[in-house]
Specification:
Length: 314
């Protein structure tokens, strides 16, 4: 009897615990609350992913927009018709020249002006080396230009059979048509001779070798102005263009010396010797010398003056 009672107590509902219940859910939610929590976590993950994608896209677009459209952004206020134009230059061009070269219609709004195009148009003129065009809101435009410095003149025909025209050559070798220069200033510049000019897609090609030649011109103009003022034509021969020439030869034709020959790099010494020879000739009453060759290193040869042939002295 006792044995039968024991079995009856074990199988009764009151004696069962959660351990005796068969578990079939595994990792899946078995209740509505579990499924709801899982959906919520999934939506949070998707939302976070979309936010990250949005931020990356916004940053990328912002960088691209600022690089390509920055000049079109008005950060300081509304754009109004241009009231003031500030024009600055380190050269000879005037405000009147700028007003004629780049006409701006009255009533043009500051933001409607294509400053990039204006910069390109100005720099297409050979005389202008660099240009900065900027807006100053709400109604002011600023234009600052840097001009090339001419060191030589040249005369040549731009087309076959056409009348020779005068051009200027900068210290970098850029050939351009000068504007607004005083006539007396241009007359002080020697002519460049013995050079064949060639044309390219952007006009006349720059002359190679001018930086070296400019050293001689600058030293002569600043330290020996009396000698420089007599120079009329300057030409040069480069070793790569003339077989048999071991170094760059620069030939100058002047009023009192028909031919002066220089060679780099000892321009300082050569100019000092040139001054001494000219002074010596004047003391002897001779105003014109046929040739002075300063390109021979340790010697100077003076034609018409055999007694002035000597070795270089430091």
């Amino acid at each position: 009897m006792k044995k039968s009672s024991s079995r009856s107590n074990t199988s009764s509902p009151a004696s069962r615990t959660w351990r005796t219940i068969e578990q079939k859910g595994g990792r899946k939610a078995v209740t509505d609350l579990g499924r709801k929590r899982k959906r919520k976590a999934y939506l949070k993950a998707v939302s976070a992913f979309l936010v990250v994608i949005f931020i990356i896209s916004a940053v990328g677009f912002g960088v691209y927009f600022l690089k390509t459209k920055w000049t079109g952004i008005n950060l300081t206020g509304t754009s109004e018709p241009i009231r003031v134009i500030h024009f600055e230059t380190d050269g000879v061009l005037s405000r009147e020249w700028f007003a004629n070269a780049v006409p701006i219609a009255r009533g043009t709004k500051l933001m409607d002006l294509d400053i990039h195009r204006m910069k390109d148009e100005l720099e297409s003129l050979g005389q202008i080396k660099d240009t900065i065009v900027s807006r100053q809101f709400p109604d002011e435009l600023k234009v600052a230009i840097k001009e090339r410095v001419p060191v030589l003149r040249a005369r040549f025909s731009t087309a076959k059979g056409s009348k020779p025209e005068e051009r200027l050559i900068s210290r970098e070798g850029v050939v351009y048509k000068g504007m607004e220069y005083a006539k007396v200033k241009l007359e002080q510049l020697p002519y460049l001779g013995g050079v064949r000019f060639s044309s390219g897609p952007e006009g006349i090609d720059p002359v190679e070798g001018l930086p070296v030649l400019n050293r001689l011109l600058t030293l002569s103009r600043t330290r020996y102005p009396d000698i420089y003022d007599d120079w009329k034509v300057v030409s040069f021969q480069k070793p790569d263009q003339y077989p048999g020439v071991g170094t760059m030869l620069i030939t100058v034709k002047s009023r009192n010396v028909k031919e002066i020959v220089f060679s780099p790099p000892s321009f300082e010494w050569q100019l000092a010797e040139l001054e001494r020879i000219i002074e010596h000739s004047r003391r002897r009453g001779i105003r014109v010398i046929k040739k002075i060759d300063l390109s021979l290193g340790d010697q100077v040869v003076v034609q018409d003056f055999p007694d002035l042939r000597y070795k270089r002295t430091n």
